[in-house]
Amino acid sequence: MVTDAHIHLPWQEPDLDAKRDRLMAELDKNGVSSGVVIADSELESVIGSAAECAELFRGSDNIRVVAGISPLISFEGQLRLCRELLDCRDIAGLKVYTGHEDFYCTDSSLFPVYDLAAEYRVPVLFHTGWDNSHYASPERMKELAESRPQNTFVYCHCFYPDTEKCFEVLGDCGNVMFDTSSLADSEEHIPAIAESLEGAIERMPYRIMYGSDYGSCDMGAHIRFAEGLHLTDTQRRLFMWGNAARLYGIMQGRRPR
């Protein structure tokens, strides 16, 4: 079984139903049985808003939705919506787009997001690495994680491409998990990333989840990258399915309507 812990609706399709159908076809093509669809923080977006993604996958056992949220965009209204969606179990987490938007993971403006996530016992996800990586650097995330042990955080992209620093700085932060979305984005970095990832999975097998960042990155390339990792059977099962299923409450079941 494979769970993709980090996917987006494809931006190319003209409407939400077509986006969902193309995504589900891509999962089937790559042998992925379940996934986590991450909505944008924008209220109108080609990858779907929180409300749109929640509606699109409502009632699915094998697709969970994470709501994007921003302190810069209708924040009080977004907080109310996320609470309603959490009450209905239509979302399984919250994401803030540090670096894509101009705020740090430690900014006090985000404390209401962290409080809401702690109340409902769902994770908060962060965009990390790439450009503007200082907004959620490993050092800042360590500071945040240590100050908020009541939260579970997901460090998306593992500070790409400097995964070694990511795992070194955050290795002792037991309330920080990682998804490997985008790590197979460039052939140039794959050997070093694979080595650091194998070591990290050996040290903390319950904290790292497979993800592709489909919608921005190639799902097939990430499957091939994951298949090439040198892991034990137990490590592979946790990495490819078990950790994400536990964190997001995913069941292997029927496709969404």
TrEMBL record:
This is Amidohydrolase-related domain-containing protein. Transmembrane segments: none annotated. InterPro entries: Amidohydro-rel, Metal_Hydrolase. It holds the Pfam family Amidohydro_2. Residues 4-250 form the Amidohydrolase-related domain. GO terms for molecular function: hydrolase activity. It comes from Ruminococcus flavefaciens.
